[in-house]
Amino acid sequence: AQKITQTQPGMFVQEKEAVTLDCTYDTSDPSYGLFWYKQPSSGEMIFLIYQGSYDQQNATEGRYSLNFQKARKSANLVISASQLGDSAMYFCAMRVLPVAGGYNKLIFGAGTRLAVHP
Amino acid sequence: EAQVTQNPRYLITVTGKKLTVTCSQNMNHEYMSWYRQDPGLGLRQIYYSMNVEVTDKGDVPEGYKVSRKEKRNFPLILESPSPNQTSLYFCASSLGGQPQHFGDGTRLSIL
Question: Rounded to an integer, what distance in angstroms lies between the CA atom of residue A96 and that of residue A103?
Fold first, then answer.
């Protein structure tokens, strides 16, 4: 079954430190994409970073990097130099192709709530 | 500005009273989708559309209807809302396999 698992309901980190948010996935499809979204308390969903299953290098976007370990089926988000504004809910998601056709279905994990302390 | 616009942002209504949540995107995206977000469950797909007049069920379609008569619009219809449809709803759009752009969400409470 296609599934995303985020095992950390909540995390906290000290400002300016790095933090890793865990994400494991399950799919038998060789072609997939992995995404991280941030949801601040205001509720909107903000795209952070993307990793394709065939990408050779780990994705990076500013202070965000994705630690992609294909054999372990993990796609952890690393936030370096945490800021107070990073306090939010973070969702890992996987893009899969529905069996009946179509594209771009996203399966989400339950999310991890990150609190950054001063 | 590229955006996905949902309306209303908040709605409190009663069981059985039909309602529609509108969604519009200005990016000429082919793909649009509706999700609901519930605590501990993340976001789950309700319906999606690959193009005009092409829609299909997601993982939790029961109690919802959609239509895609124009490329930019993808309304979500609750014909007879029930309390278990109280949730936070998101509309999203994308072009091909690109990251989905989300609307700001609609918080729906059904009493």
Answer: 7
B97–A43 C-beta distance less than 8 A = no
| Whether the Cβ atoms of residue B103 and residue B23 lie closer than 8 Å to each other | yes
Residues whose CB is less than 8 angstroms from the CB of residue B68 and which lie 6 or more positions away in sequence, other chains included: B32, B49, B51, B52, B53, B54, B55, B74
Handedness of CA A25, A29, A33, A37 (dihedral sign): negative
- pLDDT bracket for residue A29 (50, 70, 90): confident
CB A13 within 8 A of CB A116: yes
Which residues of chain B make contact with A105, given a CB cutoff of 8 A? 33, 45, 48, 58
pLDDT digits (tens, 9 = 90+) for B15-31: 999 999 999 999 999 99
Which tokens in the block code for residue B87? 């949730």
Before B83, cis peptide (omega within 30)? no
Which of B31, B40, B90 lies nearest to residue A104, judging by beta carbons? Answer: B31
Contact A102 B50 (CB under 8 A): yes
User: For residue A102, which of B58, B46, B34 has the smallest C-alpha distance?
Assistant: B58
Using CB atoms, pick whichever of A43, A100, A105 lies closest to residue B45: A105
Higher pLDDT, A20 or A101: A20
Residue B41 C-alpha, separation from nearest chain A C-alpha, in angstroms: 5
pLDDT in tens, B29-86: 999 999 999 988 899 999 999 889 999 898 899 999 999 999 999 999 999 999 999 9
